[in-house]
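Question (not urgent): is this output format expected?
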Amino acid sequence: MSASKSDTAAVKGADVVRRTGGRRRAVPVPHLSVGERVARGKAARSEVPRSRHAEFAPAAHRPDPVDLLQSQAESRVPELVPIRYGRMLVSPFTFYRGAALVMAADLAASPHSGLQAQLCGDAHLSNFGVFASPDRRLVFDLNDFDETLPGPWEWDVKRLAVSFVVAGRENAYSAKQRKMIVLETVGAYRKAMREFASKPSLDVWYARIEVDALMSELQGQVKKQQLKRTEKLLAKARTKDSMTAFSKLTRTVDGEPQIVSDPPLIERIEELAPGVGGESLQQALHELIRIYRGTLQSDRRVLLEEFRLVDLARKVVGVGSVGTRAYIALMLGRDDNDPLFLQFKEAGSSVLEEFTAGSGYANHGERVVAGQHLMQATSDIFLGWLHVDAGMDGQERDFYGRQLKDWKGSFETEGALPTGMALYGRVCGWTLARAHARSGDRIAIAAYLGGSDVFDRAVADYSEAYADQNERDFEALRQAVKEGRIEARSGL
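Got this back:
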């Protein structure tokens, strides 16, 4: 079985709402019995045995990875694209982070069970992390949804597993250690999915990892060195909020705070569009904020009305996102000690869209927000979207908004011990299973996975083979730069 636009398998619940000419219409949802759902999973296993997930061989007409990356560059800010390539060329792991489209094309040609869920679309290990929940608890979850779309659940699992192998190679782990980490990661996914299959739907919906509870559970299970490293990471995450961003990213000019430019990574709008009248530009920006505000939950709209827009700048973010338009908005509440930084990221087509049934949303920003709400246990209170009819380049674009900083932190893979990486893998595996269980048929997926480690071992073999391909693709990009086919800027 392989994915295509004709794939009729639907994510459970995804057919409740469909857009028609900008409107929504209700569609009936089938409700199968537990027995029928188990049978569905076992039938899928008969059609695509779990051992087949070990298969990876480059397709005979596999697209050139550099051509795929360049196809993405066509819609990006031209002067920022070389920065993206420079960041991808730091290592095979940074290349992997930026090559979601390359892997999506490969996954589309691989066997899959035909069972679907809402996918992250880029579920590598650096796209998990900690952040503050609305009730001000530190939680662990997926945190990047630019590529989210319904699709085969295996694609997320494989993207996650391969990322541990690629990172493990950079840390000079042995093949045995890398396999142990992948088995722990995928095994955690499989066991969690089987656990969720036995739980009531509301219990699955409310399930989440609270960091304080996780740390208490880890006491005595890990070495003191690993525990201290994790505690240091969490302490650092708690300092990453709007006040910290305010102190680092702004200065006072004529009595008003202003974002500090650091070209090409941070550039104020007034510098990007010097010919636009300041008054008309400010009016347009205020209107866009109002449009975005209208997509928020009603109580969050009231909260956002407490803040006024002070400054706006373009900011380069991430690895794979470099070149897409991303802006930070400085807003102030009651006084200068009440800042709020919002981030607005451009949302284009998902890298999965070419290989699946596509998005049910007219606005890609809404696609991202809807996918994030569906997969995360708790989401940023300022998560919303907007459409720009004519940006500075005259083009229509979709965006989604959220807080720039809110206790955000991520696991540092460099120098991590194999046992620490395996522990992190188990947490990621559980989290991904919970995210899939909220939208996919958790009972059918659990029945497909079964109680043995056949699927785990198959994905471990796939991961090593795909990590080899990732290194070849990394070299292809490096060769393209050497030959002058593309330009890369390092150190930014």
